[in-house]
Amino acid sequence: MFQPEFGFVTGMISMEDKTLSGADPAAVPGAPAAALSDVEARILLSLPDIVWCLDQDRRFRLCNAAFEAFTGRTQRDLAGMTPPYEGAELPSFIRSFMQGSTECKLDREEHAVRSPKTGLRIYFETTQIALKRPDGTPDGYVCIAHDMTRRKALELELTASRNELFQHAYYDPMTGLANLRHLTGKLAEAAAVAGSGGAGGAVLKIDLDRFSAINETVGRASGDQVLLELSKRLREEAERHGDFLARLDGASFAMILQRKTSHDDIARDCERLLTRISRPHFVEQKLLTVTASIGASYFPEHGDSSEQLLARADSALLSAKREGQNTWRIFDESLLDEARERFELEADLRKSIEGDNFTAHFQAKINLQTGEIAGVEALMRWNHPDMGSIPPGVFIPLAEQTGLIIPLGERIMTDACHFARHWNDGNRKPIRVSVNLSARQVMLDDFIPMLKGCISRAGCRAEWLELEITESMLMSDPQRIDELMRGLSALGVAVSIDDFGTGYSAISSLTRYPIATLKIDRSFVHTRVNDGKPSAIARTIVAMARELGIKCVAEGIELAAEADMLRKIGCDEGQGFLWHKPMPEEEFFRWVTRHEKSAAAQ
Q1: Radius of gyration of the chain from its Cα atoms, rounded to whole angstroms
Q2: Residues ≥6 apart with Cβ < 8 Å to 96
Q3: EAL domain location, by residue (predicted)?
Q4: Rounded CA gap, 464 and 482, in Å?
Q5: β-pairing, 358-367 with 583-584?
């Protein structure tokens, strides 16, 4: 931008031999007693910036062509006029230039004006220079207005881009809530304040329970609507109490309570949030109920960094999940011991899968009418070298979470194929061996090739196998389920629905797919046994299975009275501790021999 030297401008105003254009000063009314060389005059006239000058009494003295082009007023029109130039119809930033100021100084300002010609907004940066004589008295004023509209547009565009980048970097695009990065920074600030003697607080990690089931049953679009509604509810709670809310990922949120809190305060907050979350949602003409689990840690007691506080809230959250969900847990030191034990158990699980610590156990399915063995279920058991037998309820969830369920499932399928060949090879009455695999494995694209490999290597026949899947799997991914069913049907492997009646029942799937067996969950087997009446649900399942031509098996039978009730309502088969617990292969065959002898003696 043009910035004149003081001496040049002073000379421009005080010299008396020429006017700006080189003409006689008397030819321009009120013209300045200023003189410039031809070169100096041409320089001023050719400047792209708008330039105009006042004398020491603030009378308009001269301007350049850029000034005349922008304002539509010539130097002759304005010469001798003083601010605010009444009737001249000049932009306000020109009218007010140096008005009332006599200080000898240099100032810069920004102005936004409308173009007199186009009406478009134009941005100017003005440099205002007050000149002085050697004795310090005012000698005139100069203003240079530089058009910075393009630069301003670029600055605004850059600011908008920065805001957009900030939005993407620190906010969740779907809900508009802060994201994990934003939460981490906010929590670090709060923890630092608390660590230096300021007020403490707490962080809550909120995770929706089994939210994937909603996506599987009503679709992701409806699931997103539920998430948006839950985000709104949580935001209202956060704003009401001055808390900071963030969405971490998927169906997981976090909230910073930056206020003095006690154990009881956090407990009340968790209960309030769980109640608000569990209110039903009406989506796609369906009432959906969502629950959540909450883990909490508070500062500065549980940590001095956001990473430590979030990790400990996560430990409490996992504990709440294991305790049955729809509950909350506040971190305590015992959770660190649990986490350590869990980590060590995971390492042992990996070693045991690679070694020989996992073995298949087998449990017979008994024909309730004849007492004959009608089938066998293969179940995986873990014999830990130091801790002994580890219950499936402990290692199966751990294997699911770590992905180790994939090699574990292949191991049980291999053992089941070998057992089926051993039992059925040369047997005039072959039976099916059933295997309950993880949905995570069954839904893999390479599941059918893996199954074929197990069958081939064991010398087994596909019709000797039965695959147990759950109701929710039938509704999770229709296209993948269609492919799976076609693949199993082509192989000749039978399909059984496990724990029927406990999930999202899909009755239409029973006629759509070639289902061979329905397994009644044990919770319906034990109902009302004391008064000798079967569960209404068990009776309904048996009747429905009979109408559809599907075999019905009741699991978890422990009492003879339960077996009698199920036999009377027409249930085909049963399995449970009434006959025997799952056993290793050799022990199972010894039990089979005893059972057959006992049946023959009767």
Answers
A1: 42
A2: 83, 84
A3: 342-596
A4: 22
A5: antiparallel
Place of tokens 């978890």: 556
* Residue in 106, 95, 164 with CA at minimum distance from that of residue 130: 106
CA distance 449 to 490: 12
CA 429/CA 526 separation, integer angstroms? 32
Listed in order, strand segments (DSSP E) in 189-243 are: 201-208
Return the amino acid letter for 404.
L
Cα–Cα dist 599/597, whole Å = 5
Place of tokens 């929710």: 472
What are phi and psi for residue 145, nearest 5 degrees?
Answer: -110, 115
Q: How far is CA 57 from the centre of its chain?
A: 68
d(CA 114, CA 119): 5
Number of H helices, E strands in the chain: 23, 22
Domains of the chain in start order, with CATH, are 6-151 (3.30.450.20), 171-331 (3.30.70.270), 355-601 (3.20.20.450)
Q: Return d(Cα 93, Cα 312) in angstroms, integer.
A: 61
Report which secondary-structure segment, H or E, holds 411: helix 405-424
Cα separation of 154 and 137, whole Å? 41
Residue 501 neighbours by CB under 8 Å, 6+ apart: 520, 521, 524, 537, 541
pTM: 0.55
Classify the C-alpha dihedral 158-161-166-167 as positive or negative.
positive
